[in-house]
């Protein structure tokens, strides 16, 4: 986990960097990223023809530019990573220092929860792999492609959806025999599948599950290489119980309706036109999901019971308050994005709403909104404080009393800490 | 009812030929009845019971007209020889019948919906052909190359087996190409909060990468805050919709929209493709339970219309000589963009020569509806099945045909070559990039 206890929760306002200076200093400045603690702001900058660098606060990453840089991402422990190229080869750079190995290609940087593990997908001599802290998987088969991968919170388990068998052009039989599998820390599962989707690792890192396609229009869930006995017309991504990783829940389609199934058994007896984004409460005692009881009428169902309010466009993933008593969701209705808590719409509609954070006791929900091209922090349906040109998601302090708000005003990047009670 | 006389040159399609040998009568009966009972409803029954077999729809179909009014190509015959029999025999049909159903629905009908406009009752024959396709898909009776394309969608979430690194690498390369027109142009990857996510279809990175360079320059000149994803979800096309594999169709559409939601964009602008618009605007959202796309979707025709009419893009030098256009069924007949298409054609062409019939009444390119994706074995029949399109273009005297759709583009190229029309086939953006004014401060 990101250890936010050591962050500066005392300083009320810091001008971290005047990014207006970057505009005159460099030929071009790309969109900024900030470190999790808000103390650093970084942008890729163009310093000459085919020459790029990264500006971080008042510095750049050394004197020597790179041919290309992209995908700047801060690790949870505050190190800045980016993917760079030198003489047509690619590698990872961490705080300006490049990995020793160069690759044909590198992409999709991911981190363990504490940021100690930095991983990415790499391709070398036409073979795909995952590179973890500079070490590339040694896989007994040459991986033909990697569609995506996941990393456990402790960073010890990495699993990828990978093509393990070469497929000739238009080889339908070969495809249906299975060319895709799950590769865990470099070791492929024993079986291949037609397709694999929705790969996930339990929070304790012990169990791995995915959707698999058994045949045209036949889908199931496979957990640690063992498929559920039940098959379905379709499935969506499974989710592990947060504290009991032997339990896994997924939406399944039967007879043209969607149901929720746990470990293969239907647990919500109501079928829906659509069912997505099932989410466990922090203690795992409840499940909320986005559902459409009727066509184009979307709402949240908690333990199978839909709210009475519905929305005519769509819903994003619901989230529980830390105590599990409340559920918030971002909904879209008639072109407006709305923040909804337990079926009640809070405040106005916005052009955009970002995932909310709850106060520890769940009485306040804090989130970033966009209106007229400007950004602001909203609390329980009301905009609080200034508008920003750029703003990042507000972060609640570990003791639940303060909120960190990081944003850009008139080109200047500020990090602010406010009392939750003042919001 | 009299059997239809069907005269066709034999075509070898390994998938249909092979899968037909594996089908059992029980399996066929089960799937036919399952689809008819559980996946259709009043709509199918109304169409079937309303049709008076008058044959007025025949004159609408380019297959019928181009094959010297061979009745076996008439829309109503396509229904009579497929779904009527299945209903009448309650699914007790054999493998040879199902194979013929796939040939009819996948290789002899573009689900273009022209015939529905000529039917006095507005019967949507294309819908019934989609039901036939669904049955065939569940029986794995899909032509080889179309099924392979659907497998690509299922495995990679794009149409052309493009691997994740190939996608990103191509965008980075095309950014440099775009800078050939406008040095300060950028193709911003993964820019959260941009106004627009631009999405394309699989063939662009695979065969037509220059279109990505073009859009990079166009976006800079128009000063659009835009992005493209560096993950799967970039491909807006959907051949699974056309094979009848609606589960794969939905997964592809869902990812497309969730990618836009993840990037927090206001809208998706899509490149020049008709079927992709249908899948992303109608069929995909409907299956997902969305009334409309959860992020608004703008077709390239509407986007360019907005840019030109608002003056965000000015035309410096119109393209010379007679230029004509192909109206893609899915965005013109089925989404009403015909007037906008004519506006932008006139804006960039010195001498735009329209086709007749045009707009909503235009003939299908005969490649759409997944028909070009059934591949080389069926190409000869497809091109012969659109002689009237060749004649239509010939009458315009144009040197270039603009096709704001990928399927139209490939299909029309085949027609131009086969009928020796000696015309160029271009996307609208290819004309625009040459015609638009690049403001002085952006010039190389
Ligand atoms: S190709 Fe078009 S006009 Fe012909 S039958 Fe199919 S939908 Fe009707
Ligand atoms: S025009 Fe309509 S009623 Fe007449 S045959 Fe065709 S579908 Fe049937």
Automatic annotation (TrEMBL), chain A:
InterPro entries: 6-blade_b-propeller_TolB-like. This is WD40 repeat domain-containing protein. The lineage of its organism: Bacteria, Pseudomonadati, Thermodesulfobacteriota, Desulfobacteria, Desulfobacterales.
From TrEMBL, chain B:
Pfam families: CCG (PF02754), Fer4_8 (PF13183). PROSITE patterns: 4FE4S_FER_1, 4FE4S_FER_2. Transmembrane segments: none annotated. Keywords: 4Fe-4S, Electron transport, Iron, Iron-sulfur, Metal-binding, Transport. Residues 42-70 form the 4Fe-4S ferredoxin-type domain. It comes from the Bacteria. InterPro entries: 4Fe4S_Fe-S-bd, 4Fe4S_Fe_S_CS, Cys_rich_dom, Helical_ferredxn. GO terms for molecular function: 4 iron, 4 sulfur cluster binding; metal ion binding; oxidoreductase activity. This is (Fe-S)-binding protein. It comes from Candidatus Desulfaltia bathyphila.
């Amino acid at each position: 986990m990101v250890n936010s206890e050591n962050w500066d929760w005392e300083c009320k306002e810091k001008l971290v960097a005047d990014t207006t200076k970057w505009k005159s200093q460099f030929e071009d400045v790309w969109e900024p990223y900030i470190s999790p603690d808000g103390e650093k702001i970084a942008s890729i900058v163009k310093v000459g023809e085919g020459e790029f660098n990264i500006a971080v606060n008042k510095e750049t990453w050394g004197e020597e530019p790179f041919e290309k840089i992209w995908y700047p991402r801060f690790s949870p422990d505050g190190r800045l990573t980016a993917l760079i190229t030198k003489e047509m080869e690619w590698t990872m750079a961490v705080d300006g220092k490049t990995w020793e190995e160069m690759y044909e290609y590198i992409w999709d940087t991911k981190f363990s929860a504490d940021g100690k593990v930095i991983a990415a997908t790499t391709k070398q001599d036409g073979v795909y792999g995952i590179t973890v802290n500079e070490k590339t998987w040694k896989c007994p088969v040459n991986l033909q492609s990697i569609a995506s991968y996941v990393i456990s919170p402790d960073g010890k388990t990495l699993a990828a959806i990978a093509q393990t068998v070469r497929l000739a052009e238009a080889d339908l039989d070969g495809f249906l025999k299975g060319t895709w599998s799950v590769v865990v820390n470099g070791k492929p599962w024993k079986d291949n599948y037609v397709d694999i989707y929705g790969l996930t690792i339990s929070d304790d890192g012990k169990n791995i599950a995915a959707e698999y396609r058994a045949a045209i229009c036949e889908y199931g869930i496979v957990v640690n290489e063992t498929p559920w006995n039940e098959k379905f017309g379709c499935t969506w991504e499974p989710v592990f119980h947060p504290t009991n990783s032997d339990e896994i829940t997924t939406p399944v389609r039967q007879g043209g309706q969607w149901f929720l199934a746990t470990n293969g058994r239907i647990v919500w007896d109501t079928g829906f036109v659509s069912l997505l984004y099932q989410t466990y409460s922090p203690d795992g005692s409840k499940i909320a999901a986005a559902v459409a009881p009727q066509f184009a009428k979307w709402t949240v169902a908690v333990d199978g019971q839909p709210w009475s309010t519905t929305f005519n466009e769509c819903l994003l993933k619901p989230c529980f308050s830390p105590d599990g008593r409340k559920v918030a969701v971002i909904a879209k209705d008639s072109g407006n994005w709305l923040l909804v808590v337990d079926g009640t719409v809070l405040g106005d509609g916005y052009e955009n709403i970002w995932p909310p954070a709850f106060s520890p006791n769940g009485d306040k929900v804090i989130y970033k909104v966009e209106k007229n091209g400007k950004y602001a922090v909203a609390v329980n349906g009301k905009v609080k404080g200034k508008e920003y040109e750029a703003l990042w998601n507000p972060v609640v302090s570990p003791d639940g009393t303060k909120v960190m708000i990081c944003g850009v005003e008139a080109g200047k990047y500020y990090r602010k800490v406010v009392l939750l009670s003042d919001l | 009812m009299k059997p239809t006389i069907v005269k066709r040159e034999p075509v070898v399609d390994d998938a249909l030929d092979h899968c037909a040998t594996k089908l059992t009568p029980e399996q066929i009966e089960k799937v036919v009845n399952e689809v008819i009972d559980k996946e259709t409803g009043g709509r199918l029954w109304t169409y079937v019971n309303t049709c008076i077999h008058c044959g007025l729809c025949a004159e609408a179909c380019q297959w019928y007209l181009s094959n010297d009014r061979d009745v076996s190509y008439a829309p109503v015959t396509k229904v009579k020889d497929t779904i009527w029999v299945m209903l009448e025999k309650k699914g007790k049909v054999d493998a040879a019948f199902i194979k013929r159903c796939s040939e009819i629905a996948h290789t002899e009908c573009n689900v273009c919906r022209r015939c529905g406009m000529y039917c006095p009752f507005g019967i949507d024959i294309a819908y019934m052909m989609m039901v036939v396709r669904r049955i065939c898909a569940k029986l794995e009776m899909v032509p080889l190359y179309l099924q392979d394309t659907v497998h690509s969608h299922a495995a990679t979430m794009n149409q052309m087996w493009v691997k994740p690194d190939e996608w990103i690498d191509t965008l980075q390369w095309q950014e440099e190409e775009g800078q050939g027109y406008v040095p300060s142009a950028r193709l911003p990857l993964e820019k959260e909060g941009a106004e627009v996510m631009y999405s394309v279809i699989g063939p662009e990175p695979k065969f037509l990468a220059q279109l990505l360079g073009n859009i990079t320059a166009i976006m800079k000149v128009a000063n659009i805050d835009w992005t493209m994803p560096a993950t799967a979800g970039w491909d807006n096309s959907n051949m699974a919709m056309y094979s009848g594999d609606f589960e794969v169709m939905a997964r592809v559409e869902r990812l497309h929209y969730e990618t836009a939601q993840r990037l927090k964009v206001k809208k998706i602008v899509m490149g020049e493709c008709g079927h992709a618009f249908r899948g992303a605007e109608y069929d995909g959202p409907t299956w997902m339970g969305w009334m409309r796309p959860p992020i608004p979707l703008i077709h390239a025709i509407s986007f360019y219309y907005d840019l030109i009419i608002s003056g965000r893009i000015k035309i410096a030098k119109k393209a010379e000589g007679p230029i004509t256009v192909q109206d893609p069924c899915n965005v013109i007949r089925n989404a009403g963009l015909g007037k906008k298409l004519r506006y932008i054609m006139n804006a960039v062409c010195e001498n735009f020569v329209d086709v007749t019939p045009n707009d909503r009444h235009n003939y299908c390119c005969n490649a759409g509806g997944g028909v070009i994706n059934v591949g080389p074995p069926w190409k000869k029949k497809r091109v012969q099945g659109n002689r009237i399109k060749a004649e239509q273009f010939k009458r315009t005297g144009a040197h270039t045909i603009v096709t704001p759709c990928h399927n139209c583009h490939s299909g029309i190229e085949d027609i131009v070559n086969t009928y020796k029309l000696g015309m160029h086939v271009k996307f609208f953006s290819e004309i625009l990039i040459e015609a638009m004014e690049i403001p002085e401060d952006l010039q190389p």
